[in-house]
């Protein structure tokens, strides 16, 4: 399966010191809950993204432990207040150990 | 009040009692068990402390047409400085097969303790947000969501 390409939107890339940036992220993922059964009555094994994190130059700013009760194609909106110019790294970790990553540069004047 | 019941009133009272009893035994029992799981999950998160209502604002729709994607927003009132910030926020749905929904971890670099996502709700139930501050104090908010079509394959 091709690695899904996450969608990330920052409300702006350039801020003055002390301001905040609103981040919206969405990644395509089935988020199979492990509660459903197929036509033969067998439980469909769980396959979800169990962790999402956003790091700023290697330091975790925001992260989330995810249970099957998060909807398919998990969407997260949150806020970051980077103290200086740098790179935001976004990581989604699947139950099978695979990771999806993306980066965004931010400028602080 | 007239304490002498005529035949019609006695019959109605009896029917009501039977309906209430079967309701308790049938529909409510699993929901109550799930609610117990939810309180256990909250107590584990807080380390045994009872969270106080306040400072947390949980925003969910009163009525959700589709339980598969229910928008949920949580905001915690906090200065978010190095010395005083929101460390974690636990989201619990007390009527789901598994009560845990998500745990958000914030840091002083978050700027604002706010997060928004979309969750699955198996049916009409309470959604609870519990926030743990950097000093260890815990606060919560609780909202009921009426779900027309359940999520979780139901």
Task: Write down the secondary-structure element order of chain B.
Answer: HEEEEEEEEE
Mean pLDDT of chain B: 83
Total strand count of chain B, please? 9
Mean pLDDT across residues of chain A: 92
Features:
heterodimer; A: 109 residues; mainly beta; 5-stranded mixed sheet; B: 154 residues; alpha+beta; Immunoglobulin-like; 3-stranded antiparallel sheet
Description of the molecule:
The complex is a heterodimer of chains A (109) and B (154). Chain A is mostly beta strands and 109 residues long. Chain A is built from no helices and eight strands. Chain A has a five-stranded mixed β-sheet with strand order 2-8-7-4-5, with no helix packed on it. In chain A, strands 1-3-6 form a three-stranded antiparallel β-sheet, with no helix packed on it. Chain A is elongated, with a radius of gyration of 16 Å. The N and C termini of chain A lie far apart (41 Å). The model of chain A has no long low-confidence stretch (mean pLDDT 92). With 154 residues, chain B is an alpha+beta fold. Chain B has one domain: Immunoglobulin-like. Chain B has one helix and nine strands. Chain B has one helix at 7-46; strands at 52-53, 56-59, 63-66, 70-76, 86-93, 100-105, 113-119, 125-133, 138-149. In chain B, strand 5 and strand 6 (100-105) form a beta hairpin. The longest helix of chain B is centred in the first third of the chain and has 40 residues, at 7-46. The chains are: A mainly beta (109), B alpha+beta (154). The interface between A and B is medium-sized, with 30 and 31 residues. Strand 5 (59-66) of chain A pairs antiparallel with strand 6 (100-105) of chain B.
């Amino acid at each position: 399966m091709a690695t899904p390409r996450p969608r990330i939107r920052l409300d702006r890339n350039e801020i003055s010191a002390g301001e905040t940036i609103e981040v919206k992220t969405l990644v395509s993922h089935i988020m199979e809950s492990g509660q459903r059964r197929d036509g033969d009555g067998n439980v469909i094994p769980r396959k979800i993204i169990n962790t999402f994190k956003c790091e700023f130059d290697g330091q975790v700013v925001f992260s989330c432990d995810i249970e099957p009760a998060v909807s398919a194609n998990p969407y997260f909106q949150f806020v970051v207040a980077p103290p200086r110019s740098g790179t935001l790294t976004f990581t989604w970790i699947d139950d099978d150990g695979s990771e999806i990553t993306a980066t965004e540069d931010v400028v602080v004047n | 009040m007239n304490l002498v019941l005529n035949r019609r009133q006695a019959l109605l009272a009896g029917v009501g009692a039977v309906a209430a009893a079967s309701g308790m035994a049938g529909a409510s029992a699993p929901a109550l068990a799930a609610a117990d799981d939810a309180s256990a999950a909250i107590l584990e998160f807080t380390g045994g402390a009872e969270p106080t209502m306040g400072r947390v604002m949980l925003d969910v729709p009163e009525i959700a047409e589709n339980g598969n994607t229910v928008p949920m927003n949580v905001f915690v009132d906090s200065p978010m400085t190095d010395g005083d910030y929101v460390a974690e926020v636990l989201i619990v749905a007390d009527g789901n097969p598994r009560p845990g929904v998500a745990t958000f971890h914030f840091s002083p670099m978050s700027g604002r303790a706010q997060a928004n996502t979309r969750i699955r709700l198996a049916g009409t139930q309470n959604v609870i947000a519990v926030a743990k501050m950097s000093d260890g104090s815990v606060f919560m908010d609780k909202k009921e969501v009426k779900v027309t079509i359940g999520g979780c394959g139901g």
